[in-house]
C-alpha cells in the first residue's frame, strides 16, 4: 500500500521488497506492494463502492472511508465542492464498510470497519476486523493502481 501512508510511520521493510520477503511478506507488482503471506492466500473481495469522476481519464483517486453507521453515500454530495476548475480529473471512491455487530452499540448490526468492543482506547478495536479492513482498503488501492493511477496519486 505504498503511497497510502507516511513512510515515517511505516514498518522497517516498507519500500524494501527484499526486507519484506525476509519478514514473511509477499511483494507483488513493480511497486513495493507487500502483504503478509496469509493475506495473499486469502483473497479479499472488493468492497461495494460508489464512484464519481470529475472528468474523463482520471489521473488521481481519492478513497474516502465513512464513519460508524454511515455508508459511502454520505460524502458523495461533497464532490462538486472539492473539485476545482483546471484540476486534473479525479476519481472519488466511496466504499461501504461491511455490516457487522458493534458491541458498544448493544450488538446492533451496522456498517463498521471493525467491531468496537469497549471504551478503553488501547483495547477497544477488534483486531481481526481492523486487519480485514486494512486488506479491503489495500485491495481498493491496488485496483486504482491497476486502473492506471500512480501510487503517489492515490489518497486514502
User: Helix/strand/pairing class, anyone?
Assistant: alpha/beta
Biggest β-sheet strands, sense, barrel = 4 strands, mixed
Oligomer: single chain
Mean of the pLDDT scores?
Answer: 80
Percent of sequence in beta strands: 15-25%
Quote the distance from N terminus to C terminus: 10 Å
- Main β-sheet, spatial strand arrangement: 3-5-4-8
User: What's the helical proportion of residues?
Assistant: 10-25%
User: SSE string, helix = H, strand = E?
Assistant: HEEHEEHEEEHE
Shape: elongated
Low-confidence stretches: 1-16, 26-43
Number of strands: 8
Q: Radius of gyration over alpha carbons?
A: 17 Å
Q: Helix count?
A: 4
Keywords:
156 residues, two-stranded antiparallel sheet, four-stranded mixed β-sheet, disordered N terminus, 4 helices, elongated, alpha/beta
Structural summary, described in words:
By secondary structure, this protein is an alpha/beta fold. Helices cover 22% and strands 21% of the residues. It contains four helices and eight strands; from the N terminus they run αββαββαβββαβ. The strands form three sheets. It has a four-stranded mixed sheet with strand order 3-5-4-8, with helices on one face. The longest helix is centred in the last third of the chain and has 20 residues, at 127-146. The protein is elongated and about 45 Å long. Residues 1-16 and 26-43 have low confidence and may be disordered.
Amino acid at each position: 500500500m505504498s503511497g497510502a501512508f507516511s513512510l515515517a510511520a511505516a514498518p522497517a521493510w516498507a519500500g524494501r521488497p527484499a526486507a519484506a520477503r525476509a519478514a514473511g511478506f509477499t511483494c507483488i507488482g513493480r511497486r513495493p506492494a507487500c502483504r503478509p503471506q496469509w493475506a495473499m492466500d486469502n483473497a479479499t473481495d472488493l468492497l461495494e463502492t460508489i464512484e464519481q469522476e470529475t472528468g474523463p481519464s482520471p489521473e488521481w483517486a481519492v478513497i474516502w472511508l465513512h464513519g460508524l453507521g454511515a455508508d459511502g453515500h454520505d460524502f458523495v454530495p461533497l464532490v462538486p465542492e472539492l473539485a476545482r476548475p483546471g484540476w486534473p480529473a479525479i476519481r472519488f471512491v466511496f466504499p461501504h464498510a461491511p455490516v457487522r455487530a458493534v458491541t458498544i452499540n448493544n450488538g446492533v448490526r451496522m456498517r463498521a470497519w471493525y467491531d468496537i468492543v469497549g471504551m478503553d482506547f488501547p483495547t477497544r478495536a477488534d483486531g481481526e476486523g481492523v486487519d480485514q479492513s486494512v486488506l479491503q482498503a489495500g485491495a481498493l488501492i491496488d485496483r486504482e493502481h491497476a486502473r492506471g493511477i500512480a501510487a503517489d496519486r492515490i489518497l486514502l
